[in-house]
Amino acid sequence: MRHNAAPHPGPSHEGEGEKAQRSAGSPSPLMERGWGGVRKKLYPALIVLCLTSPAFAQSTLSVEADSNPEYLAGLAQLFNSASRIAPETLNGEGPLLRITPDGAVSTADNSRLSAVDQELAESARRLFSLYRSMGGQTGERALLFQRTKNGLFAAREGMAGTLSHSLGAAMGGALQAIARADASLPASAATWIPELAAALSSPSMRPPPYPVARVPRNQRTLISLTGPEIASAGPDAILAGPPGSTINILKTEAGHLQASTVFSETTPEGFAKLYLYHSGDALTPVTSFDIAVGAGRAGAAVVEPDDHGASARTATTLLQAGATQASRDGQIGTANDVNMFALHITEPGMLAVNSRGSSDVTARLLDSRGNPVASNDDGGAGYNFEIRTPVNPGNYLLSVQHCCGGSGNYHIDTTLTPR
Known about the structure:
The model is unreliable at 1-58 and 65-69 (pLDDT under 50). The protein has helices at residues 70-84, 87-90, 115-133, 167-180, 187-201, 228-233, and strands at 26-27, 31-32, 39-40, 47-52, 60-65, 97-99, 105-107, 143-148, 151-156, 162-164, 213-216, 220-226, 238-240, 245-253, 256-263, 270-277, 287-294, 316-319, 325-332, 338-345, 349-356, 361-366, 372-376, 386-391, 394-402, 408-418. By secondary structure, it is of the alpha+beta class. 41% of the residues are buried. It is built from 6 helices and 26 strands.
């Protein structure tokens, strides 16, 4: 066992007597917008979101998810609202509307709402919903809207308001007011909000793409990282995510990294980060990427498909009868995943089995009756295992799992040296 003290932020590392558990945008143009209205063009199977690393502008994060982010639909609804209400309709006398983040609408005199006032209230609800779906925190303050002879009054409760001559301009101002009070907003999103507000104010403008990749919960998501930092992190790089996330690196080559992630129901919604580490330095991240964790699918948790069985009957053959060398790739997909490998020894000799990679895996070698022959945790390079033991002819099982309930990829090399 190895003990490290990790600074914040970063993946959790081992405390006294236990090791670390290392488990672990812009949207593509999924809508065609004809201003004066929004024509949605939503692809059902694939979403690609691109994100520039705040630390290194040359790196990008792409997220391929199996459903459409709610904020795209919310964005379309907002722009529809902004263009549907004619500016002259807003000049008049109307009640002061108070719309809370949970969607409740009230007026000072409990007056009946006109169709225009109902649309104003609905626009405020959509604004709150859009902001939450991006991962933002709306707080408790309500939005206030009121039609006046001089234009549309809009304000965040307890803050100074503005008079606008279009609903889009009023919503843009309200959006900026919400963002100013949200300390959790990353710098990239805070920079984007004024651009969106400006686009809402002018129906002829195209809304800018959202700069933070949104990753839904409870579904498998493919993440692609590209940039010079990927190469510097090395072939055995570590990608760590927020609590409740499982991240398996699928491949790393030529400055490109692809990983498969599953964010569970326990992963907090809101802004989070992905941290990229070099396998030889799990204390200092090479770079980080902002993400927004969304609600995703309800229901049963999604897990990675199991690549190797967990019993003698379903074990994957590692060393065939008569062979003296073999290699296999493996993946620990979930906290309790166990990978079993079969070794068929036909002559006595010295058996050497070791793992390679950034995953902290342990191994046990069992005989045909399930009795332990040898085991190891950190005997190899880094956090890898290494078993060296004499063996007689027979069938053996190698059981591999993560040391601390984490996940990740690994590679096994096996050599039998006959006596």
